[in-house]
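Subject: for your reference before the review

Hello V.,

The reviewers asked for a structural picture of the protein, and I figured it would be easier to keep everything in one thread rather than splitting it across files. Below is the amino acid sequence we used in the manuscript, unchanged from the supplementary table.
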Amino acid sequence: MMRCMEPVIHYVDAFVGLTEEGNPAAVCLLDEERDDAWMQARAKEIGLSETAFVKRDGHEGARSLRWFTPSCEVDLCGHATLAAAHILWQEGLLRPDEEAQFDTKSGPLVARARDEWIQMDFPREDAVPADAPDGLAEALGVDLSHVAKSRMDYLIVVENEQTLRNMLPKFDLLQGIASRGFIVTSESYAIAYDFVSRFFAPAAGINEDPATGSAHCTLGPFWAERLGKDTMKAYQASERGGIIRVHVTEHAVSLSGKARTKRTP
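And here is what came back from the structure prediction:
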């Protein structure tokens, strides 16, 4: 029996800036079918917050795209989508003027090359006001100015950016609260950005994610309403830092970021 060849893994930093390192993702281009257990084991072995598995078997020429953390599969991931599109153009699998089209668990996604930026169309993930779950304030260690809940995450507004940057969450407590993740946000004190955020997802094996595209599907609509603008620039204030451009429409959120290949075999 012939053994399957191991696919090539590409390592990419997504949502980078001049000094921001962005969020590392692995991109695995598949030439043949692999089962869920294989993909989960591979993502655990790689050990990054997300590994994207891409295979050209989607609808009408689109590529199927799935995202795995070291511990589970997720329904939506922005930075690994950006990384996957970046690799398709870099490896010559798409022309620079071609769209990257993906079939995913969150529906069809499209990415386009825009000079040095990659623009991606994502579904809105609006948050509605919600009661804070028991233990949330203690787990985050801050006063909660506003709490809302989207399909996937809690959205928490804190007093100011300094409070957000100085947070030291208790991840063991946070892991005990049922949610994919916790988006903490405030307005930015820097004129270059409209809002800042941090994202914590210990239940998914990621205490703090460096730059989270999917969180901005919730942050975009929230801040668009509060700030009265549909185009914004956001900063994710993790240790690595990430820059995301956000444009909000009635039914979608456009996210743009830059990618940098870290390592390709």
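For the response letter, the relevant points are probably these. The mean pLDDT is 94. The first strand starts at residue 9 and ends at 14.

Happy to draft the paragraph if you're swamped.

O.
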